[in-house]
TrEMBL record:
The lineage of its organism: Eukaryota, Viridiplantae, Streptophyta, Embryophyta, Tracheophyta. Residues 128-316 form the ATP-grasp domain. It comes from Paspalum vaginatum. This is phosphoribosylaminoimidazole carboxylase. Transmembrane segments: none annotated. It comes from the Eukaryota. In the C-terminal section; belongs to the AIR carboxylase family. Class I subfamily. Pathway: Purine metabolism; IMP biosynthesis via de novo pathway; 5-amino-1-(5-phospho-D-ribosyl)imidazole-4-carboxylate from 5-amino-1-(5-phospho-D-ribosyl)imidazole (carboxylase route): step 1/1.
Amino acid sequence: MSRAVCVCVCSRPGGPSPVHGVSETVVGVLGGGQLGKMLCQAASQMGIKIAVLDPLQDCPASSVCHEHVVGSFSDGDAVREFSKRCGVLTVEIEHVDAVTLEKLEAQGVDCEPKASTISIIQDKYRQKRHFSKFGIPLPDFVEVDTSHSIEKAGETFGYPLMVKSKRLAYDGRGNAVAHKKEDLSSVVASLGGFEHGLYVERWTTFVKELSVIVARSRDGSMVCYPVVETVHRENICHVVEAPAEVSDKIKKLATSVAENAIKSLEGAGVFAVELFLTEDDQILLNEVAPRPHNSGHHTIESCYTSQYEQHLRAILGLPLGDPSMKAPAAIMYNILGEDEGEAGFSLAHQLIRRALNIPGASVHWYAKPEMRKQRKMGHITIVGPSKISVKSCLDDLLQRNTSNPSKVSPRVAIIMGSQSDLDVMKDAETVMKNFGIPCELTIVSAHRTPERMYDYAKSAKDRGLEVIIAGAGGAAHLPGMVASLTPLPVIGVPIRTSSLSGLDSLLSIVQMPKGIPVATLAIGNAENAGLLAVRILAKDDQELSERLAKYLDDLRDMVLETAERLEDLGSDEFLRRKD
């Protein structure tokens, strides 16, 4: 996990003075890593002064902070002296001297979040116990301090078994997996032994890892950022996708768990709540960071208020900003060290050069002086009109082969009651191909496969589909039944039949009861159904909107050219040449 930052803000001597600008409070930050750097960048935009305490002379924040004090944020004396420069104290890394912070609070120093919160978060076992007391859903866990206790935990929880250090664990450090009983001794040794402080968790089989950034101001007001999905590689955050592709129900549940967790802690600031989504749609809390977080880097470009500006607003008692996304989709890619030293810098530089040629991509380089494998050296955020668009840009950035169309998630479903409808419905597929919209084409019968129809319609939104085109003839129940089972827009295509020439199909689809709308096209006009689907998608997709505008221009030009030819040739010659 990323490191935390502690900010200290001090009042001016001599009592209150006029405020020129956003705030004249000096914010002191414990830690000068990449989070501290981005916090300073947000502060600079608002004219807020930040002092940083960090032991490295050339730490990332040193180039952008108002003042850099060289000293250890885990040294009580250094923190105590540093606090005299500030008016409020916060953290960029949670591994600070929490005991000193508690003493400083008792002396009147303003720490945000509170020292009690830092103390709870520092010890992950204590963190689990704390959240358990407040009814926050968690994986099962237990403290282990002997070979007997960890063997008993293995018998209780089964294998694989997650073994964790209580303290100083982040970015994959301090975690190890025992796949069987015989692994326990080596796993314990790799984590420093029982004396280092260990606990175990029941192995959680999850389908996604999610994260919610929660901001709380001094007055207790809270706002939550959209739920994102985090993708890890070797226990280190690799990619963040915003927003997460999960159902609205899961988003609400994840946000609720995150809010309740932060309500149980003290102090203002930004908090990151990392969560597991299980196979049975449960949300379990993994851990909390009392600071800006890797999963919120994307907010700099994708949200109206970045997590860094929000953290400053919160700890200074300013109104909280709008956390909603101003871009439809974003993806964040961590630039991790792929090699040591200059070789690693060269590889990172090649990646950055490619990113600078990608529309919507922003490069953040932390300027760390030393390159190491798997070290977080920077990140790249790509914003765009759709999740498909930003994922495609990431594929370009990473030079991944995307020639296999089966890897692209469909946005439009084209379904029909039987294979006899295919001659008509293939026209909708042709439209999708012409506009570069991934789609799926299949048979779903309302009468012969009702269970399949039910499952298909209920799962459509969660699978990433955005529009459904349904063709049906005769009784034509398919479009209406599907529309009753999904919140997605459904476009009905009446199929011509031998008995009533499709009039029965048209009337069946168009006469839906109130509350179950189905957009209905002319009999057999699947091409228009496809074009209507394009218009629906283009509303939130700038690239697609531009392609649609070009299509309409081409259509206009074609009509004008035809009119000009008719006028030039006359009707007889025009019809002769047409034949």
